[in-house]
């Protein structure tokens, strides 16, 4: 495979990875660790800011409850305050050495807002995909100057990768929308 095609695939995969993580933060009606793992919490008197996943193990005990077990018991109240301050609509409760978060059911209005947010994130992803395509075609034209056949072939190959990546995003969007509309 041509180095330009390989580089294009790698860049598009990075875009997909970023979007997958981003979409995972949109809450459906189910408890998943992705809802809280990237929330940044000031700990140890504000001297350090760490992500929840760096401070505790996160497990879903059922579809409506997340259990956080801090690695250091002294940060449990910092975790609680940080999650509340993140405006994620979650209310953690300290239960001796663990933090319990019950996920409230979503109203239809909130579901519609989340679908709108998800579609916005997907559109941003498509913009990133188009930027990768543009960047790679420009690089390729410089590298293959005067070799029109190679340029045409690689443009078609790059476009094929872009189309496949866009289709993947569309599928993710449909799946996430179905999850959000499920009660």
Radius of gyration: 21 Å
Poorly predicted ranges: none
Shape: elongated
Main sheet: which strands, in order across? Answer: 3-4-6-5
Beta-strand percentage? Answer: 15-25%
| Largest sheet entry | 4 strands, antiparallel
The number of strands is: 6
Q: What value does the average pLDDT take?
A: 87
* Secondary-structure element order, N to C: HEEHEEHEEHH
User: How many helical stretches?
Assistant: 5
- Helix/strand-derived category reads alpha+beta
Percent helix, as a range, is 55-70%
Distance between the termini: 46 Å
How would you briefly describe this protein structure?
The protein is of the alpha+beta class.
Q: Which terms would index this structure?
A:
183 residues; alpha+beta; two-stranded antiparallel sheet; 5 helices; elongated
Give a verbal description of the structure.
The longest helix is centred in the last third of the chain and has 36 residues, at 108-143. The chain contains 5 helices and 6 strands; from the N terminus they run αββαββαββαα. Helices cover 58% and strands 16% of the residues. The chain has a 4-stranded antiparallel sheet. The chain has a two-stranded antiparallel ribbon with strand order 1-2. It has helices spanning 3-24, 52-55, 76-85, 108-143, 148-181, and strands at 40-43, 48-51, 56-62, 65-70, 92-95, 98-102. The mean pLDDT is 87. It is elongated. With 183 residues, it is an alpha+beta fold. Helix 1 packs antiparallel against helix 4 (108-143), helix 1 packs parallel to helix 5 and helix 4 packs antiparallel against helix 5 (148-181).
């Amino acid at each position: 495979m041509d180095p330009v095609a390989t580089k294009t695939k790698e860049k598009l995969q990075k875009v997909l990875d970023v979007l997958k993580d981003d979409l995972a933060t949109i809450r459906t009606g189910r408890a998943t660790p992705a809802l809280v793992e990237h929330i940044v919490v000031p700990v140890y008197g504000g001297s350090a800011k760490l992500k929840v996943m760096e401070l505790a193990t996160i497990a879903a005990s059922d579809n409506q409850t997340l259990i956080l077990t801090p690695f250091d018991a002294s940060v449990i109240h910092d975790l609680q305050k940080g999650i509340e301050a993140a405006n994620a609509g979650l209310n953690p409760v300290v239960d001796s050495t663990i933090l319990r978060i019950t996920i409230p059911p979503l109203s239809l209005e909130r579901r519609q807002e989340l679908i709108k947010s998800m579609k916005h994130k997907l559109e941003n992803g498509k913009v990133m995909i188009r930027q990768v395509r543009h960047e790679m075609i420009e690089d390729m034209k410089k590298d293959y100057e005067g070799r029109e056949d190679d340029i045409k072939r690689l443009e078609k190959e790059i476009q094929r990768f872009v189309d496949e990546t866009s289709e993947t995003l569309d599928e993710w969007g449909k799946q996430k929308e179905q999850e959000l509309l499920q009660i």
